Amino acid sequence: MVPNFVEFDGAGRVVEVQSDELVREGHQVTVFTFAADMHPEGVQVLTMGMPKSLFWERMYRLLFPLDLPKTLKWLPKLKEFDEVIVHLYPLTWLGYLARKRYKVKYIFWYHGIMTPKLFPHLYERIYMRLQIFLTRLTVGNANRAVAVSKYGQQELKRYTGLDSEVVYNKVDLTRFHPGLDGAKVREQYNLGDDPVILFVGALRPVKGLHLLIQAFNLLKEKIPNAKLVLVGRPDFPYYFEELKKISDSSVTFAGFISHEFLPSYYAACDVYATCSHWEIHNVSGIEAEACGKPVIAWHESFAETLSANSILVEAGNVEKFAQACIEKLKQVRGI
What we know:
With 335 residues, the protein is α/β, with parallel strands linked by helices.
């Protein structure tokens, strides 16, 4: 169970890999979700639906336990299963009820809840605090809790009191691996043979993209022909406008890119970079390293999985971040 079984959602992509593994092990797998654009072979996908606009989608997800008709429709279907794995609130509500009513084994898979203080507006901070509160209420009877990193394990304990085990996110190594061709992506965005830095993820304040662009502007003082490609959906219109104002023609906003084509974007870049303020276990960084690309990041949770080829920078130091990108580009490109 995952709120969004869609390509742009990190948890959805983890569920895709997880469901594939379970099918190969011989299990019968069904994914329950509000929205889906992925349909793995051998997996039944049941879409429960939700409002289409981003604002009402967020409100609906927050208030989902109040939707009694939907609970009455979908909850009985869970008694057919031996095990329910729930990724994220609000579907923890159905997991909680399935465990309580049908004694179904309930596993809560924790991907993290963004720290409220990282959001600039009061209503956003209130929304995130409510998510923490409602998650705590709906995971208390879980048979097992899994966090996707040690950092996430500590966060889950702090938010809910639950003890958990750590299972790191995996990526599909048949899609993401060294030796892929990024020529078409370079051609599409007129990147030529210039050094390219890539970011993949939602364009939201917590991702620190304004700081990444600041670091990139410092980098261009040393490497003037460098390019920055930002792949992802702009979730917060006001923030997207801020990013465009501080960007010039060397910054490309590529928008959402299908998972099918995403490997070629990693192939096209020289360095993957993220100034995210908060990550539990970043899927995009793992995909980049799987494609043989070094990662520059500064959040401590990256330290659990970054290889020796990547660089972890002191959090918040834009100058050091820019210098790390410069050093890595010079190393990769021989410039």
